[in-house]
Amino acid sequence: MPETSVSYKCPNCGAPLSYLPGAAKVTCEYCGSELDIAAVEELFRDKQALAAKALEAKQAKWDTKNAGENWSDEESAALRALTCSSCGAELVCDENTMATECVYCGNPTMIPKRFDGQLKPDFLIPFKKTKQDAVAALKEFYKGHYLLPSNFTANNRVEAIQPMYVPFWLFDSKVEARADFKAQRIHVHQTAREVITETQVYSCQRAGTMTFQKIPADGSKKMDDTYMESIEPFDYSELVPFSAAYLTGYLADKYDVTAKECVPRADKRVEQSALEVLESTVNGFDGHILEDSAVVKTEGKVCYAMVPVWILTTRYQDKPYTFMMNGQTGKVVGTLPYDATKALIYPAICTVLFIPILYFILKMFL
Q: Which of the pair, 150 or 240, is modelled with greater confidence?
């Protein structure tokens, strides 16, 4: 996050600088470097200006008031919220749905009520992948995992498969970013008597203005954030204005995390992305580290959207395994069981095969 104060540090050793009363220069008490006061002011002027701006922007908030809109009376009348009596999950369906199965616990749910008090989404990405696509993608996902139990792959079948529209808050942001890196080049010289290593240290300052669009944060507590981030990216160029017609035949999860509650996640993703962009420009060195940085948001707005996700559940040894597939791109994520016996046998086989090769190599050179 942006710094609202400036630490005066020695540009040579990084130790704190302090002005000694009566001195004509600022002296570093650690390495002895002497700096003119004017030079110190020039060195830290940009940081002071950015810190002042960061202090002003510290209380700035994302403009979340325009994210989503109220449902019309007709739309509210046509929608129902179903509350699972087993686990408490809340799902949305159209007016024709009288019964469904809870995607989270499998409990049959038949508790219709009027859908109100929620914001209407601004946009939606329609499903592109079918149920058959989801099953085929899951089978493909199994391939190449050699530690999977044989019984899992031989007898596995999908117990439950649900298409669901998941609520997402999409953040647009414009930021001013600055980062200071310490980089180095290392040269090694060898003489007849010694090896000399010469290290050159550089101060690399990077700054820029960046615009980020559609930074996603899912608005459902029940959806695993790690899974949801793993099935990204979605192609947001295919967003369409929301219509309840798209929900026909699908489940839709009701948001229970507000846009304001998602702001810290969005800020963190913006900051990390901005610093990664700046760091990518530090080239031609043998190594570098980030010493100082500031990312200040100058603009921010949010919209409310729903994205398509297939949720598939299988079972192995009475334990459920859940997988999620991006309903637009087909990307699958999930956790698989592993065979502990295979985990021991495969490394042993590799070792046995490698020993004769190693013996042959050693015999050739010894």
A: 240
Identity at 102, one-letter amino acid code: C
Any idea what DSSP says for residue 69? E
**Secondary structure letter of residue 18 according to DSSP:** B
pLDDT, one tens digit per residue, over 125-174 is 999 998 889 988 888 887 776 667 766 666 666 777 888 888 999 999 99
DSSP letter for each residue of 264-291: HHHHHHHHHHHHHHHHTT--SSSEEEEE
Q: Which of 114, 105, 113, 61 is nearest to 86 (CA)?
A: 105
- Record the tokens describing residue 199, joined without a space: 């290290």
Judge whether 271 and 265 are in contact, CB under 8 Å.
Answer: no
Where does the chain have alpha helices with state H? 37-57, 73-78, 131-142, 150-155, 225-230, 259-279, 340-365
The pTM of the full predicted model, rounded to 2 decimals, is 0.66
The beta-carbon contacts of 236-239 under 8 Å, at least 24 apart in sequence, are 236/125, 236/170, 238/125, 238/126, 238/328, 239/123, 239/124, 239/125, 239/305
d(CA 216, CA 225): 11
Check: CB of residue 118 under 8 Å from CB of residue 79.
no
Smallest Cα–Cα separation from 323: which of 167, 142, 150, 151?
142
Q: Is 112 helix (H, G, I), strand (E, B) or coil?
A: coil
Count of C-beta atoms within a 10 Å radius of residue 17 = 19
pLDDT digits (tens, 9 = 90+) for 307-351: 999 988 888 777 888 889 999 999 998 887 766 565 555 555 555
* Total Cβ atoms within 10 A of residue 223: 20
What letter does residue 255 receive in the DSSP assignment? P
**288-312 burial string, b = 16+ CB within 10 Å, else e?**
eeeebbbbbbeebebbbbbbbbbbb
The secondary structure element, H or E, covering residue 82 is: strand 79-83
Taking 3-state DSSP, the helix, strand and coil percentages for the chain, each rounded to the nearest 5, stand at: 30, 35, 35
Cα 322 to the chain's mean position, in Å? 20
